[in-house]
Design a protein that fits this description.
The protein is mainly beta. The protein contains one helix and eleven strands; from the N terminus they run E-E-E-E-E-E-E-E-E-H-E-E. The N and C termini lie far apart (about 40 Å).
Length: about 130
């Protein structure tokens, strides 16, 4: 059974840092990708970043470039999202999601536009709140 479990969310002041973890089980990290999405109540889910298992290539949306870093510990089957210089607009529930196909190995991973349908497995989410 495929499972994704996020952790590491919390409350932080603007300018602070958090590291989210996504612990995966039930599949290998040979192909596919894991992505981070976020959602604010009343708004559409937004892709944030992703990492492809085959070559470690990454993708970030413009609003988090230079502030967020996605990484993967393949031995531990855990993907991390290091979030620095956090802003109040980063406040959301953050989800990790897995694409288990071979497409990311060929084309790289993506999280936009409207890429959530590419990811068939999702975690339960973790709340990140950034106070001003």
């Amino acid at each position: 059974e495929v499972q994704l479990v996020e952790s590491g969310g919390g409350l932080v002041h603007a300018g602070g840092s958090l590291r989210l973890s996504c612990a995966a089980s039930g599949f290998t990290f040979d192909d596919g990708a894991i992505a981070w999405f976020r959602q604010v109540p009343g708004k559409e889910r937004e892709g944030v970043s992703c990492i492809s298992h085959s070559d470690g290539s990454t993708y970030y949306i413009n609003s988090v470039k230079g502030r967020f870093t996605v990484s993967s510990d393949n031995a531990e089957k855990t993907v991390y999202l290091q979030m620095d210089s956090l802003k109040p607009e980063d406040t959301a529930v953050y989800y990790c999601a897995a694409d288990l196909t071979t497409l990311p190995s060929v084309y790289g991973c993506i999280v936009e536009p409207n890429a959530s349908e590419l990811y068939g497995h999702w975690g339960q989410g973790t709340q990140v709140t950034v106070s001003s």
